[in-house]
Design brief:
By secondary structure, the protein is mainly alpha-helical. The protein contains eleven helices and five strands. The N and C termini lie far apart (83 Å).
């Protein structure tokens, strides 16, 4: 007899306020990402990050995730609903977030953050990429607790029945597959890969290609959205289609990284001296740093 999914999606019910596990999963995502970022800033000074910069970046990431995730869900998966009612875009309480939309939103937010801090976009992207997958694991676990985004019908021993599905068929718990693949497995691989200095573009490229591969594999076990279905044959889903550009870009960035061999490490002493709103000096950019110091000293003399 297959297990019938019967998990309460409410983590805490105060009567006047309900806290859902799905919301908790986003809190876990942000705070675990923050903790990992602070650890990197403290223990790997050659990255050129201070704890203040990590905290500031979190604000940009949260805003980019929420706005991009919602817009992606509406435009990629519910565009008909949007055409009927444009205000549906702003109905966050109706639920619905898209990873690919969130990825675009965070990318735009990181561009703005990089411009404000004087870092290159790639220094920021390569720093944050390894922090993300553990959040994917948390959010996919939240999807599982909600009993949504279920898998395809199957007879494997661990199959389960999801009451919200349109039938009583036993299905793959594909949310957990995604949590294990694009979440935990990608986190372990990316953390290992980025633990030592890599050339510019390499970590971001590894992240993009790795996510696209794990997501595409999971799509073969996940039931496609009912109102979209398969885009071609019995295999091409919207998730695979949106992951394809990520795979291509990831491969391109990896090739660029090891052909160009741009070193983004910084001088730890410079980072310690510029612990507030600084522009880290790259190993190849000491001349710019010297000019900056010269100008500032002239201003003081005036």
């Amino acid at each position: 007899m297959p297990y019938v999914h019967d998990i309460n999606p409410v983590a805490l019910d105060l009567g006047f306020l309900q806290v859902h596990w799905y919301g908790v999963s986003y809190l876990v995502t942000f705070f675990v990402g923050l903790a990992l970022g602070l650890w990197r800033a403290r223990n790997q000074p050659w990255r050129g990050w201070t704890k203040e910069q990590v905290w500031d970046m979190l604000t940009y990431v949260i805003i980019g995730t929420l706005i991009g995730g919602r817009m992606g869900y509406v435009f990629f998966y519910q565009f008909g609903e949007f055409l009927d009612n444009p205000l549906y875009l702003f109905n966050f309480f109706a639920g619905g977030m898209s990873f690919h939309g969130g990825f675009i939103g965070v990318s735009v937010a990181l561009i703005l953050y990089a411009r404000r801090t004087g870092k290159s976009y790639w220094q920021v992207a390569d720093f944050i990429a390894p922090l993300a997958p553990i959040g994917f694991a948390a959010v996919r676990t939240g999807n599982f607790i909600n009993g949504e985004l279920w898998g395809r019908a199957t007879d494997v021993p661990w199959a389960m029945i999801f009451p919200h599905a349109p039938d009583d068929l036993a299905r793959h718990p594909s949310q957990l597959y995604q949590a294990a693949g694009e979440g935990l497995a990608l986190f372990i691989l990316l953390w290992w890969f980025s633990h030592k200095p890599r050339p510019r573009f390499a970590v971001t490229g590894f992240f993009l290609a790795g996510y696209a591969i794990f997501r595409s594999i999971a799509e073969f076990f996940r039931e496609p959205d009912a109102h979209i279905g398969y885009l071609a044959g019995e295999w091409l889903t919207m998730g695979i289609l949106l992951s394809l550009p990520m795979l291509i870009l990831g491969i391109i960035f990896l090739v660029m990284a090891y052909r160009l061999q741009i070193d983004d490490r910084v001088d730890p002493a410079a980072v310690a001296a510029e612990s507030t709103d600084s522009k880290p000096a790259g190993l190849g950019g000491q001349k710019n740093k010297a000019k900056s110091k010269s100008k500032s000293s002239k201003k003081r003399r005036r």
